[in-house]
Amino acid sequence: MTDKTDVLIVGAGPTGLTLAVELARRGIAHRVVERAAAPSAGSKGKGLQPRTLEIFDDLGIVDRVLAGTTPYPPIRVRIGRLPVYQGRMHRPAAASEQVPYPTVRMHPQWRTEALLRERLAELGGAVEHGAELTGFEQDADGVTARLGTGTTLRARYLVAADGGRSTVRKALGIGFTGQTREEERMVLGDVRVEGLDREHIHAWVRPGRGMVALYPMAGTDAFQFMAPLRPGATPDLTLAGFQRLFAERSMLRAARVTELLWSSLYRVNIRLADAYRAGRVLLAGDAAHVHSPAGGQGLNTGVQDAYNLGWKLARALTGGPASLLDTYEEERRPVAARVLGLSTDLHDRKSYKRDEETYQLRVGYRGGSLARAGGERMPDGPLRLADGSRARLFDLLRGPHFTLLSPDPVHRVPGGPQVRAYAPAEPYGGARHTLVRPDGHVGIATDSAAELAHYLTLV
Ligand SMILES: Cc1cc2nc3c(=O)[nH]c(=O)nc-3n(C[C@H](O)[C@H](O)[C@H](O)COP(=O)(O)OP(=O)(O)OC[C@H]3O[C@@H](n4cnc5c(N)ncnc54)[C@H](O)[C@@H]3O)c2cc1C
Questions:
Q1: What predicted TM-score, i.e. pTM, was given to this entire model?
Q2: Spacing, Cα 183 to ligand 1 middle (Å)
Q3: Which of 14, 217, 394, 397 has an alpha carbon within 20 to 30 A of 225's alpha carbon?
Q4: How many angstroms does the Cα of residue 428 sit away from the middle of ligand 1?
Q5: Residue 367 lies in a domain
Q6: Residues 382-401: pLDDT tens digits?
Q7: Separation of alpha carbons 121 and 130, rounded Å
Q8: For residue 285, which atom of ligand 1 is closest to its CA?
Q9: pLDDT digits (tens, 9 = 90+) for 322-339
């Protein structure tokens, strides 16, 4: 028997889970299939960027996320006991009316995923673990997918959120252009350590041997351990291997690794998918782009892919124009190309400093077919409405709808998107009509009612 659904999401990492939450809150039928038998461990993508926190605000999990995070503590770099650098990777910033979450927060990836799964469950969804996608075919109406469990599934769309080694991308023959730096490998793990304070990120550089860095993972008693391997060295992912690397590079006797909770060997790949869409199949997250972890962009870029794609898929499935789905690649692939450039630059400079470029608040889609006059992220801010009440913009935007700020009544487009309209006391941002998309980007800001009406036919 063949099961049926609207969207089949392959992979339950941060990208697949964000997309599932986006679809679940719009009531779109979907399935999330995940090869692994259980949720993954590992602190991997530990930096949550300010823009991701805004998205988590919209998805209803930001308070839970913030409760388990801290800003990045100062980093202390030493050669043995000799301090060589102390500073902050991220400049601390105070929240403003426009940017309520100004600081990068440290949050282990396993916990980000756990909170997304919890949110999905609240919305009635679930991940099917131990369900590997083994093959699929597509035709004009949908995709037929086979799972390792023996189940066959028919979906109207398939989204590959199946990570850098994406089975789906390979099966489609979509190129993954870029480079693998075979010689740049890194031992990565979550460890418990005796004798180290948790108020700093600790790094040691031993000339001729290499470096080791330990990040105290917020909300846990573990550290994330990172140590580049020397070319030709054989990785040892056992506790003894981590202990050896730590002792050799830190030259410390007073501290030692006591427990290994999770480990992995990481190879630097810098690659971008040649296309994000093939018919009814779309790629998102690491399946579409991989790069150095420097700058903490990977998880965040995947979350934003899903946030861009979710509302478009939902519209395409509920009477919106199918062409909307082409704007996903148009908007998101150039963003990933820029992220590859930025993270490679930070990686090659071995810089500890981060700045606003990595916060993802400036990501915009200006000039694209859905953002000819707009495209920027709509900042938060106070607003006075024509009825005299006061509002906060993010409160108006929260939810799956479009938001219109206009003194005029909305002209409903038959079959058009859900629009919530508010009349500001004064034109907001200089235009008479400002329409904000469900992903918080300005769709159009115009004085012309005709232009606004036309825009609503595109979405
Ligand atoms: C050392 C390191 C540090 C990092 N630091 C950061 C950071 O600070 N900030 C940041 O933003 N990012 C960071 N990242 C990157 C981040 O971990 C990834 O970008 C992120 O996990 C990508 O999410 P994803 O959901 O797209 O893919 P993944 O997390 O890879 O999830 C893909 C899922 O698909 C499943 N799957 C694969 N094939 C199939 C199949 N055929 N059928 C069913 N399921 C399948 C897999 O089991 C997996 O669960 C780091 C990564 C590493 C390795």
A1: 0.96
A2: 21
A3: 14
A4: 39
A5: no
A6: 999 999 999 999 999 999 99
A7: 18
A8: 26
A9: 899 999 999 999 999 988
